[in-house]
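Posting this for the archive.
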Amino acid sequence: MVAAAVAGAAGALGGAAAVGGWAVRALGGAAAPGGGAARAPRLWGWGWGGSSRRLWVPSGQAAAAASPPDPSGALSPFDRQLKRKQKNWAALQPEPAKCDYLREEVGGRVADRVFDITRAFPLALDVGSGRGYIAQHLTKETVEKLIQVDIAENALKNAMETEIPTVSVVADEEFLPFKEDTFDLVVSSLSLHWVNDLPRAFREIHQVLKPDGVFIGAMFGGDTLYELRCSLQLAELEREGGFSPHVSPFTAVSDLGHLLSRAGFNTLTVDTDEIQVNYPGLFEVMEDLQGMGESNCSWNRKPLLHRETILAAAAIYQEMYGNSDGSVPATFQIYYMIGWKFHESQARPAQRGSATVSLGDLAKINGLLSRRKK
């Protein structure tokens, strides 16, 4: 009974609003996990209409950009169709906002970084927007129009209200169906850790940005849910003599700046933060991860956990990480990134050797000033 109850939630978090008119859906070229013919891309959605049609890439180009996943997981570790189903399921729950606390918090922190830039953005793009966790914190004085892109149509249909005019676009974050040099700002919160090709996703974001446009994003980091990962591994080693991955791979912070630089971004800023949430126990952690749409979608995931294994994992979790009040912590590591697309007006570092004062001279001046004070 316990095994049946947790089978749907056994996968843990990975390492990876509509207004009248129309928009674009680009979910094409994806082969079914069991094989079969690839499906042609379908285009639909909602938007503010009018001249916004020039934003979209023709459907033929979108189809050419999409490529079928590799079921072996060698090149495509994540089952994107399964991730779409998970997020759609979560968005249709009676109280979808019940498990949105983490996404709302990080979305607010991304919005704060947008406010730190003293300019207005006529047109912005939210990649992996979900139910609009960034948009609800933005103002129309900062962002005049916003396009929200997500792989799950139910999340977009149930998006939270915002004062900014929005367009909802159902599309894969890895294959953005927009023309080059379109957006003044691109934001993303807790979505890019599920893409199969992160370098390509960064290149797509860079391509759709206008010169002097900025990308501000957040994604889960390598220490996310280390308590859950260790508890499940120890329980499986004890009960089954080996373990399978239940927490998907994450990007290391040391690689993030390099990936952004390779994609063409400059003036990079990368920082990290941790959010710790306390839960009654392991089962509640898994339940909320499922409610977030963050269940594991790796191709090599284990389909279920045995009853004895999950009970052992819950006991190990409590013993190793439990708080004095009986709750258990779950740690979420967040990487925040800011990158700019090059423009001639941007400040650039001076050429090497062009300085007129040496650091040694500055040190002498500091010494003289300190002696005068004495």
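The chain has one domain: 2-31+40-349. The CA atoms of residues 26 and 49 lie 18 Å apart.
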